[in-house]
Design a protein that fits this description.
alpha+beta; single chain; 6 helices
Amino acid sequence: MEKFENLLKKIPFPIKLTASKFVNLSFRARTEKHVERVRKLCRIQLRALDLLQERLQAGITEIEVKNFLIKEVKKSGTHLGCPILVAFGLNTANVHAFATDNPLKENDIILIDFGLKFSLIDTVGNDITRTYFHGTPTKKQLEIYKIVEIAQKNAIERVKAGRTTFEVDNAARSFIKAHGFDFPHGVGHGIGRYIHAPPFLDQNNWYELKENDIITIEPGIYVPGEFGVRIEDVLLVTRDGFEILSRSR
């Protein structure tokens, strides 16, 4: 790393590339073995989320849900690639909410976001977000969930080797903006040595998607003082389009 940084300093023109970015970008070259490992991580995580559904009863707290998921992760032999985000009700409006003693109430909205790796130094991982309704959702909640769902579909359909990350982000963002909302983060990111790694899919980056990139698509809408909705899936970029590696919702 130090040698690489020193080499960059000798280049006679500006270059926005650090050693850490170089390492992250170098892990974009994927093999079928890498992809299968991500598929397996997604299956493990979705299974844990399915088990959680049986325990989501009024009174359970965000911290209790987080601890249940941590236990399931340990049982599966995997590791957390990033902290588990669990939010109920009003807390879902906070993009980076952290688990509290907040209890689940009837008709609450639930948002859960986390990623897994097989080891802390693994170069592949996953990152999935799900939004659930506990009880009967309001008309506004259903409408916003549908907007996010369609925005995600629009972005996913733009995924293809050769397309830019800006294009993919814009496919979701323009749809959400047309409905009077926006979201304060990119529509997705790559997954490599770190769960959040290049290529970053947002309005500030024009990475070209490459075949076998592993990325996420995660649009969201956050209504201050009310609730938030985010849906995140893991995709493999292919020559002709994409494969969703986290299929069930």
